[in-house]
Structures are given as C-alpha cells and as structure tokens.
Amino acid sequence: MTAAHPETILIVDDDAGVARLQQRWLEMAGYTAIVATTGDEALACVRAEGIDLLLLDFRLSGIEDGLEFYARLQGEGHTQPVILVTGYADDATIVRALRAGVRDYIFKSVEYLDYLPEACRRVLDQVRVEREREKAQADLRTRTEELRATTQQLWQAARLAGVGELAASIAHELNNPLATVSLRIEGVLAKTPSDDPRYKALEIVQQEVERMAGLVSNLLQFSRAGRDQVSTVDVCEEITKTIELTEHHMRERRVRVELTFVPGVPTLVVDRQHLRQVFLNLFTNAADAMPGGGRLTVWVQPAQLPGGVPAVAIEVADTGAGITPEQMIHLTEPFFTTKEEGKGTGLGLAICRRIVHQHHGTLEFESTVGVGTTVRVTLPVRPDPNVTGLRIEPPSPL
Ligand SMILES: Nc1ncnc2c1ncn2[C@@H]1O[C@H](COP(=O)(O)OP(=O)(O)OP(=O)(O)O)[C@@H](O)[C@H]1O
Ligand SMILES: [Mg+2]
After folding, report:
1. Is 313 in the same domain as 377?
2. Which residues, judged by CB distance below 6 Å to any ligand atom, belong to the binding site of ligand 1?
3. Strands 309-318 and 294-305
4. What is the pLDDT of residues 132-145, one digit of tens each?
5. Pick from 11-20, 128-137, 210-219, 239-248: least confident
6. 208 and 238 assigned to the same domain
7. pLDDT of 19-50, one tens digit each?
8. Separation CA 163–CA 223 (nearest Å)
C-alpha cells in the first residue's frame, strides 16, 4: 500500500496485540507505522531516525512507565512529538505528562482506534506549523542582525567622515599659530642662558608645543582625503627604512626586531608616504605595548584578497600587553586611546584604517591579553580602478 502521509509513526506498547491493532488502523489511514514492545527497542528505532511521532503506552512492562521512557527520550535529545495512550492514568498523571512535554493523550476507550489517526494528524500538523514558525523567526533574527551590523557600519562611516571634516578645520586653524609659537620659543630659548631660572620653563613650553604640532600633523594626515602620489613601492624596503627611524625608540625599550621577507614579494602601487605612516603607527603601537621589552616581528609575504586579487600581507606581531575584547571593538575609532594623557592621540589606527581602505586593502587584528598582538595589513598589488571611495569595514578579529 502506498502511504498517503509521508510521516512514520512508532507505536510503543508492551502488548503486541494492541500494538498491531493500532498499526493496522494507522496504516489504513495512510501512515507508515512500526511497532516496538520495549523501551529499549523503541529507543533503538528513534536513534535510527526517520520517526516523526511516537504513540506511547503509559504502562510499559518492566521497571519503567511511559513517562520514565519519555524522560530517557528527552535525555538523549530526541524532539519527536509524543502522544500518550493510556487505559488507566489519573488526572494527576496526565497533567504531569503534559507538563513534561507530551503533546496529547488518548484513553484506550472502546472506540479510541477511530480517533487515533485524527489525533496523530493534529499533533503532526501542530509540530509542522511550529517548526515553520521557528524557522521564520530564525530568519528574522538573522535579518535583524544583518540590519544592525549594516547600521553600525554606516554610523561608523558617518562619524568618521564627520570627525575627518572637524579635524581638518581645527588642524588648519591651529597649524599657523603653532608654527609661529614654535619659532618664537626657539628664538627666545636660543637667547636664554641655560642657567637662567626661566630656561627650564621655556624648555617645557617648547616640548609641549612640539607635542601639539604632532597632534595637528596627525589630524591633518587623518583628514586628508584621496590618494596623493601613487608609485611603485618595494614594501620590504619601506619597512626596513621605517624600522631604522624607530631604532632608537626600540633600543630604549629593549625591543628586539625581527624582519622576515618571504622571497617573491611583488612591488606595490601605493602612496609611499601613506604606507610609511601605516608602518610607523603599527611599530610605535607595538613598542608602546611592550614597556618592559619584548620582540617585534614583521613578516611580509605574497597573499591574496577575496576574489583572488594578488596582494601582499604584512604582519606586525608583538609580545606585548594584548588588546581586550572590549578595547577591540573601539580600536580603530578616532581618538580611542588607552595611553595616559599626552602620550597618545588615538588617531594612529584610525589613520591606518583609512589609508589601508583607500588602497582597497584589509586591516585585521588578533590579540591575546598578556601574550601579544598581531596586526595584519593586506594590500592589493595594483589598486582596482573600478572601486572608488572608502570601503567600510568594521575592525574584525582574524
Ligand atoms: N600592538 C598593540 N598592543 C596593544 N594595544 C594596542 C596595540 N595597538 C593599539 N593598541 C591599543 O589601541 C589604542 C589605539 O591605538 P592608536 O594607534 O589608534 O592610538 P594611540 O597609539 O593610543 O595614539 P596615537 O597613535 O594617536 O599616538 C591604543 O591606545 C592601545 O590601547
Ligand atoms: Mg598609536
């Protein structure tokens, strides 16, 4: 006989005669029905899969009753619906069964077999509707999550653009007066003998002005839009030169530097100054993360960006303090810094991120607190002429 219903029902009853009767009735209604006369046998059937519904006799022989069997079924994580078929159960037992998750119950009355297929249909339909609803809800959750992520990216981009404009205007306003102050101080200092009581104070003013000039130059760098001078650049050479610049800083901090250039790294078409800026920021951050000394490893190798785009990957790894997951969320936001006041502007990584994205590359971070941090910059060998503008990408752990 061809089954009119695609579902398979497992009848669990220790009375083989009763079980066969139920089986026949269900088969006549178009179901596939199989029989198990002990709890173990029934569990074996369920484990073998393909069972959509269980008809469970309340009083199985042996030590367990239907509810104990049901608990075993749930304990193994099986989620098929169960209908309790009972000749004896009192109200309290039925309530207990329904609370435990049994879908329905049927009394073995005189004509119960007539109701059996209908009861099965009802429960199976109920379960199908519930599963569809759960799937729809899961879909909705995924969509909501996607929407939330997109909104956050847009918000970040808007904020970045806003900060960029603000930074540019402030920096331009500050640049000229700062240059004047700097020059004047230098002049006054040159004319002041070093044993003059005012000399120390003037020196402090000069240092502070220099720090302000540094901040302004960072702001200007950050707000500069578009690529300026693109040329063919040897990344390994740029890294070596940038390391030379920071050598004093590294030695002072007892940071050992190891450079590994994998042979066959192609030259890049990039803005050389911008690239140096990225490396300088990453090296400075790494050194700052290792106040008690450590190892800075730079690794350069050929790589690929999504879509098979030929690229070069630069990994900058330190053995420093590491970045907490909470810090990771804000890492590349402008003005996010954990350094003491006056030490960091919090623009270093925001600048890196902007430069890397302008070159259509990616910037990734991997960090373990107390172990160290690896920053990976992947840059395409040639800029893609079809892609324009800033690509938005939140900081992502590797
Ligand atoms: N290699 C690293 N190890 C641990 N923390 C890091 C590392 N790189 C960056 N950070 C964290 O990220 C923060 C932001 O870095 P970012 O370079 O943007 O700003 P900054 O170094 O604080 O200031 P600036 O670079 O503008 O002088 C740092 O203050 C630090 O907390
Ligand atoms: Mg920095």
Report:
1. yes
2. 218, 281, 285-286, 289, 318, 320-323, 327, 331, 336-339, 344-350, 373
3. antiparallel
4. 999 989 998 998 88
5. 210-219
6. no
7. 999 999 999 999 999 999 988 999 999 999 89
8. 8
